């Protein structure tokens, strides 16, 4: 099955530039061939190519296939990007395959990466929804300062995973099905004690992801998986 990301398909019956090039130049699709499209907003489309040139690929929509959400609640992961960007990109891909709704990058006190190019991450998210046959594209936010982020409004339940001492119930034991959830994941050097304190003062609940010591990207993926399973 050839799946193409077409966010504007309801107003523009053709594939975006990169998708058109892949369809025509790489896959050698021609007029009459059927394809599957996703707008990333909850719909698949069964379509047929009506015209294909070196630069454009026009389609006729044969059927709109609305997709029910695969999980309940809004699942938001906010993480400090890793020093090795490959690990952050790995998380973005795998978390999308599992299923979540929103990703924010955090600039924390001990962050080793202060800048991240979200254009590359956005392409990975698109590729992952196509590969895993999902009709909804996670929202991707630019890097935000930790202190600014924890003061932003969020209507759901808020958690912070950290390695400092203190009472920290397992996320799997306290996350409830159907509720919106936000989890903060710190950098390789963890959140500072001051950051944890400020987060708690702003309504974040300290949580544990288990007894194992996890890398940043692994912790973020574990949190994503726990919330997704709880909301099946």
Short key terms for the protein model shown above:
232 residues; alpha/beta; seven-stranded parallel β-sheet; 7 helices; 11 strands; elongated
List the helices and strands and how they pair.
Elements: E1 3-5, H1 17-26, E2 34-38, E3 43-52, E4 57-66, E5 75-79, H2 85-98, E6 102-107, H3 118-131, E7 139-140, E8 144-145, H4 146-149, E9 157-161, H5 171-174, E10 181-185, H6 193-201, E11 205-207, H7 216-230
Parallel strand pairs: 1-2, 5-6, 5-10, 6-7, 6-8, 9-10, 9-11
Antiparallel strand pairs: 2-3, 3-4
What sequence of helices (H) and strands (E) makes up the elements? Answer: EHEEEEHEHEEHEHEHEH
Poorly predicted regions: none
Q: What's the pLDDT, averaged over the residues? A: 94
User: Biggest sheet: strands, sense, closure?
Assistant: 7 strands, parallel
Measured distance between first and last alpha carbons = 26 Å
Strand content: 15-25%
Indicate the radius of gyration in whole angstroms: 20 Å
Number of helices: 7
Bin the helical content: 25-40%
Per the principal axes of the C-alpha atoms, what is the gross shape? elongated
Class from secondary-structure proportions: alpha/beta
Number of beta strands: 11
Description:
This protein is of the alpha/beta class and 232 residues long. It is 30% helix and 24% strand. It has seven helices and eleven strands. Strands 5, 6, 7, 8, 9, 10 and 11 form a seven-stranded parallel beta sheet that branches. Strands 1-2-3-4 form a four-stranded mixed beta sheet. Helix 2 packs parallel to helix 3 and helix 2 runs parallel beside helix 7. The two termini are 26 Å apart. The mean pLDDT is 94.
